[in-house]
Write a structure and sequence with these properties.
Layout: H1 2-8, E1 14-18, H2 26-37, E2 44-48, H3 54-60, H4 75-83
Parallel strand pairs: 1-2
Amino acid sequence: MRKLQRRLAQRRALVVVLEDVHWADAQSYELFSSLLREPLDQPMLAIVTARPDDRVESWALDPATTTVYVSELGLKEREQLVDSRFLDPEEARPSPGRSSIAPGEIRSSSTSSSTR
């Protein structure tokens, strides 16, 4: 892996993006750790997203790391975010007689499609 990392970083800075690292298994976490902790001769930027996790927190405490903590959006901010995805914000609102989805709640729906 180190050979691949060096090769990718030969001509320009290497950017590594790791998303939802809190879901990583032990082997993946160790691979990520070795990529992040063992410096290269070439510039590298790593962007990691994760929920609070003891393993990830150890990366955040590293003096070479800049950590940005982001808290959960409030109800108003979540509504604004959803509204911004629609041309007409009213399309994002629940239909009459239908309740809105609470934070953290997951709903699934199934649709039937006809064959062509």
